[in-house]
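Reminder: ligand-aware prediction takes two inputs, not one.
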Amino acid sequence: MIDEAHFSLMIHGGAGALDNVKDQKTAVRYLESIRQILEQGREILSLGGSALQAAESCASLLEDDPLFNAGCGSVLNEDGKVEMDAAIMDGRDLSAGAVAAVDNITNPIQLARLVLSESEHVMLIEDGAMRFADHCGVKRATEFYFYTPERVEQLKQAQLKNKMMLDHDETDEGSEDQKYGTIGAIARDMNGDLAAATSTGGIVNKRKGRVGDSPIIGAGVYADNETCAVSATGYGEDFMRTVISKTISDFIWMQKMDAGKATAAGIEYLRRKVNGRGGVIVIDRNGNCASGFTTKKMIHGWIEKGGETMVRF
Ligand code: ASP
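Here is what comes back for the chain with aspartic acid:
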């Protein structure tokens, strides 16, 4: 149904204190990357592209930027290997595709999209997902594509301390001064259709086989044309336990909230129930944009109803 011919787009590049972004130059790099990717998404949506296409495309661009913990910038697990999770959801019919614990794939979000469109399943993991990638003719990346010097050093530090870390900028355990660098993209197109995409390398020094919230429908990602599109970033276990993305959608459906109110209610629930750490971006069916986080900051940006491009730390 075409109610209003406008589009909205939001993307994020992780939540946390972002104390690692100490110098102005690095901060500008983050903000510029977010801004440029939003502009590319604007082009897709303003030319009549679908929300699904915009979400996938923006998520792919974020995966291609080593600044973020997804795709080529993915953090390393306890074995020093990349294991990535991603999911994409189409609000038109609740179709969804997800992959978990995949490696050597340049853009896991594109593999998730193939699971959505080319398989009868919602989620494929590990070897099975890789076999499906081969079946679809997805090109494998070389291992060297992923191992940025920062990620190798980060794993070394985590292993020296003998603990898991959440992306860069680890401080005291339990402190909020951490950055959770997952990426996400959500969109409402000019037809009023919604879509959401989330992709991550997960947690530094995580156990082999650990899967976070990002590929779990209703936890790290959700889209339903009747309510909203959501992408989450933060401590995955907190989001899985609160099914945070679906919870926000339910606030809209059951309590007739808009994006702003539902996001505030979702963040309050996350904090109250599990003291959850992280944040969400939300676009409701009318194109209203909202964000909320329990960490000090979240890198994100948006274009609301075709308006100005906004970028926030
Ligand atoms: N949510 C991701 C996970 O737990 C981490 C992140 O947001 O950076 O795998």
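Residues 14, 69, 167, 180-182, 200, 202-203, 212-214, 220, 233-234, 236 surround aspartic acid (CB under 6 Å). The chain is about 35% helix and 25% strand. We will return to this case in the review session.
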